[in-house]
Amino acid sequence: MSKKTKYSNEPLGKLAVVADFLPPPDQLAYREETVKVTITLNKASIEFFKREAKQHGTPYQAMIRKLLDHYAQAYGSESTKASKPRRAR
Q: Hey, what long-range contacts does 50-59 have (CB within 8 A, 24 or more apart)?
């Protein structure tokens, strides 16, 4: 068993008040609107995500969802522009 801490009535020294930097609970307890889809993916891709997810202790579906979210956020503003489809090079 670990050694017990002994407290004394000694001065603590110079103290400073730290500004509250944590978000309130109502900002932490939100739920994004989601839509269930069925998609067929390459077996090698799924194996990659499963392997990585296992190493990081997270569900592989969550990793794929986050990847798609990042992609959509990065290129989302382009999708609102009326532009010609890109040709493969």
A: none
